[in-house]
Amino acid sequence: MNIKSQKDFFSGLMFMGIGVAFAWGATTYNVGEGARMGPGYFPLMLGILLAVIGVAITFTALVFETEGGDKIGKWAWKPLFFIIAGQRRLRHFVGRPAQPQSSCHGHDHCHLRIDLYYQHGGGRLEIQDHLHPGYRAGGG
Q: What are the sequence ranges of the domains in the chain?
C-alpha cells in the first residue's frame, strides 16, 4: 500500500474514527425510523456520514498523487498542551453548582451574590441569593 498524501490519509482515518464512535454511541439511544425519528437518529446519520467522508478522503490519499506527498510535519506540542489544559480547567468548573462566596472579608459592607440553578428534568429555574453570615440588614 503506497500512501500518496499522508495528511489526507490520516485525516480520513480521523474522520472514520470519529464517525464510527458517533454511530456506535448513537445505538445506545432509541434510533426510531425515518418517519418517527428517535433521539439517536441524528447522531447515527452524522456518524455514518463522517465515516463515509473519511473513507472517501482515505481512498483519495491512496489513489491520487500529490506534489511533495503532503508529508505530516512536526507536532505542535505547546498549542496542544494549552488546548488540553484549557479543556481540563473548564471541566473543573463546569457541572458543579457555585459555592456561596462572600465579598465582605471583614468589612462593614457586603455584596449580594445571586446564583442561577437549572434543575435538570424538572425544567425549573431557581434563583438563590447568598449573604455573608455576618451581614446585618440596615448596614449598622
A: 6-71
